[in-house]
Amino acid sequence: MHYLEPNEKFPPITEADEQGLLAIGGDLSISRLIYAYNHGIFPWYDASQPLLWWSPDPRMVLFPEKLKVSKSMKQLLRKKKFTVSFNTHFNAVIEACAQIRRDGQHGTWITREMIASYNSLHKLNIAQSVEVWENGDLVGGLYGIYLKDKNVFCGESMFTRVSNASKYGFITLVNKLKEEGVKLIDCQVYTRHLESLGAEEIPRDEFLSYLGFSS
């Protein structure tokens, strides 16, 4: 396993292990994060671990035109059950994502250092958020990294306080990104929930081709 010094470059993606772990250590500097996402690498760790960098093979992605919307969700969208905004409360969204307790996780992987770094990326219009509102209350949302020059959006995390709120926001975002010409949404790793929305696994080499790189 490769251990990164603070200013050291990432090793070749082909050095990632079977789980997709590429490197340990380094930092969450803006330049490193931008480089990482543009090369198919993302950080994922919790406060008890060192900084871990991943590039899994296969990669979970959603092609916008393959989005699956259930009948019940179509009804909620027609009724305009929630109000959706974009990039108005980024810090509130990432803080909420950090606070949500998830099955199989003993703590959050969204550390204070990560929140600070992604807020800096948001100020550069690279990290973006989706807010879902009900009666003036923030009831769901998600955030991710928008690689506009590559027509790729990298989803990071979502939260919900009301049933279907985050899914409502995600579907609204996908439709918006489709209109903007986005070709692929990076979902990183497999979950049954993402699969139910139309996401699928593709080889890492195919994913990297959308970023303009190969392993």
Number of discrete domains: 2
| Biggest beta sheet attributes | 7 strands, mixed
The CATH topology annotation of the largest domain reads as: Aminopeptidase
Assign the structural class, choosing from mainly alpha, mainly beta, alpha/beta, alpha+beta, or little secondary structure.
alpha+beta
Name the CATH class of the largest domain.
Answer: Alpha Beta
Mean pLDDT level: 94
| Uncertain runs | 102-107
For the largest beta sheet, what order do the strands appear in spatially? 6-7-8-9-10-5-11
What would you report as the Rg, rounded to the nearest angstrom?
17 Å
The number of distinct β-strands equals 11
Q: Which CATH architecture of the largest domain?
A: 3-Layer(aba) Sandwich
Number of helices: 7
Looking at CATH, the homologous superfamily of the largest domain is: Leucyl/phenylalanyl-tRNA-protein transferase, C-terminal domain
Write the H/E string, N to C: EEHEEEHEHHEEEHEHEH
The helix content is 25-40%
From the spread of the alpha carbons, the general shape counts as: globular
DSSP strand content: 25-35%
Distance between the termini: 18 Å
How does this model look, in words?
The protein has 215 residues and is of the alpha+beta class. The chain has 2 domains: 53 residues, Alpha-Beta Plaits, CATH 3.30.70.3550; 144 residues, Aminopeptidase (3-Layer(aba) Sandwich). Helix content is 32%, strand content 27%. The chain has 7 helices and 11 strands. The protein has a 7-stranded mixed β-sheet with strand order 6-7-8-9-10-5-11, sandwiched between helices. Strands 1-2-4-3 form a 4-stranded mixed β-sheet, covered by helices on one side.
